[in-house]
Amino acid sequence: xAKIILCTSKEASAPFTFLNTKVEIYTYEELCFxxxxxxxxxxxxxxxxxxxxxxxxxxxxxDLSQRLYxxxxxxTSTQDLLIEILSAGSYYSVDEIASxxxxxxxxKKLSHLEKEKKxxxxxxxxxxxxxxxxxxxxLIAEAGENAxxxxxGNIYHNRAIAAANNLDIKDAKTFFLQAYELNQNxxxxxxxxxxxxVTEDTATLREEVRTKGLSEDYFEDILEEIENSKADVRExxxxxxxxxxxxxKMNKNLSDYDKRMDIILGDLKEDFREQTI
Amino acid sequence: MxxxxxxxxxxxxxxxxxxxxxxxxxxxxxxxxxxNKETYLMPNVLFYSVDTEHWxxxxxxxxxxxxxxxxxxxxxxxHLAANESITVADxxxxxxxxxxxxVKLHIDSFLYRYETAExxxxxxxxxxxxxxLFNLLSRxxxxxxxxxxxxxxxSHLDSGLYYIFNQPHEIWNNSVALYDYSNDGLNYYRxxxxxxxxxxxxQVTREDYSSVMSLSKYGxxxxxxxxxxxxLAETELKKAYISAVFLxxxxxxxxxxxxxxxxxxxxxxxxxxxxxxxxGACYRxxxxxxxxxxxxxxxxxxxxxxxxxGITLGDEDDTFVPIIRGGSQxxxxxxxxxxxxxxxxRITIVYRDLVSKEERRETVRIHGLPQRPNKTTxxxxxxxxxxxxxxxxxxxxxxxxxxxxxTNKIYRKEFxx
Lengths: 277, 417
Description:
CATH topology of the largest domain in chain A: Serine Threonine Protein Phosphatase 5, Tetratricopeptide repeat
Strand content of chain A: under 5%
Number of strands of chain A: 3
CATH architecture of the largest domain in chain A: Alpha Horseshoe
CATH superfamily of the largest domain in chain A: Tetratricopeptide repeat domain
Strand order of the largest sheet of chain A: 2-3
Helix content of chain A: over 70%
CATH class of the largest domain in chain B: Alpha Beta
Radius of gyration of chain B: 25 Å
Largest interface: A-B, 19 and 24 residues
Largest sheet of chain A: 2 strands, antiparallel
Radius of gyration of chain A: 23 Å
Largest sheet of chain B: 6 strands, mixed
Oligomer: heterodimer
CATH superfamily of the largest domain in chain B: ATPase, nucleotide binding domain
Structural class of chain B: alpha+beta
CATH architecture of the largest domain in chain B: 2-Layer Sandwich
Distance between the termini of chain A: 40 Å
Helix content of chain B: 10-25%
């Protein structure tokens, strides 16, 4: 049902950071959203005094903080603590919290490999590509050749995404193809062509598409998708800055060019560093 | 520890009056001039002494100008409107700066009488809302080096109500009349109190008689002024059962009322004084029990907002959440709330008229926001007024922390109520 949620707790001046994903949280609502969608990435050690103090001091929910303090020593389940947090406000309805609990119960019934894949997927979602890649590699090794092909194919697919985002082009192509062989999911094959489209020329892409027995329309679709993505990139601040830097270089304003390039490279390095931690 | 003062200030073009809250008598007390205990009207004049290199204000300025070499700055209100500047001791001052300096010096001249004194709250009462004056005075807190909420600006009308409704109950048991006879002419306010309806109502009706009665019109002919005022009062006082009359303004200072005194006093209590507005402002500065009438009654004046404005949450109970509450001056009314959209891109704004009890709804669509997961679009909703009956609900996209950054998009839904 469409409705409006009133925010009643205050916004933190200092965020709470989930160290494994580097996600910074400023409000109770953000905390709930993160918990609801990333339970797999939250270990009991994260539900510590640091979080409870932050809830009390930064977002002003003293009662919740007290309840968590009293619960943490009595119960062992991470889930119970998380549900206590979710239930303290109106961001999630009673029904939503109930289905969250059900999902959690179903999650517990998953195999070790399935649980680990979900965790790796979580890291992938937060662009922790190196961490995700390591987990996928472990999963591939652990699953072995006897694993269910679609499941294994999906692991390869996500491993390819992690590789592509780390500019491991060769690995990305290999993993997408392996993924497609196993899961027969057209998205995996498409991923393979996307990597080719952004790393090779158009003629090579067309040849690859033909080799795989696909039509000219398919090729055109890939090109259109890439063009759309490029249009999105042109909207990004970093792109505007890069353009400005190039313009200044062309006009021999090298000090401005250097300054802008330092900022761009600094941002990219910072971004990469965050992935590795 | 410093003495903390609640101060009321009546700021008029020619004179300023101050009062402070005496916490022993629990009443505001007028502040007299430093060099003349008989008068409470402080002239709005500045004097820069070349001898001492100091600025003086009010009666001290009036005195210093005859004893020391320097420059007099007067008619500050008039120059303010003309947006002029002046050079004093090789320094260029805008009249805005001089005006704020004058207001601050008036306050300082009171505070300096104590060893350590600070302003807890200052309410400045100006004749009526004026955007430029309001904006200028809204900067005073910076000059005074106090927090923004230490200084409030209000109108004579509001201060008059604060004064009247903090008098003994029997005085305002029935309707009350307030005559304000300033240099600009005569204004009449009838204040009716309705207790047998919900909400209980204080209704203020204003009649502008400035074209009929003004000091410049009569000059020295006080006999005619008395006759005209008596006639006018007789007509007005018949319209309601009025048990008390308040007279204020420079026009009532001379003893010209003879026939009109008979008219006014027939079965009524009559109070005349020049400090109604400063003391009313002082009551407002203290707040608490002195502002209770605002809780007990809906105060309907020409400058108060008559609507609660908010949104509905769209839940089963159709919960109404106010962004602003009606009943206060439009220029002192603002508010905001933060909300999150759940499975919708629409907000339903609700206007609740507190007098007629009618409710009006308007649904606005928040378009052009990026695709985000459900419940990750947070909006700041605020209400701004440009008059008692018109304003805008402003919607700002806040994103969802660092998870989904804001677009900084702002939407305005203008309204009239």
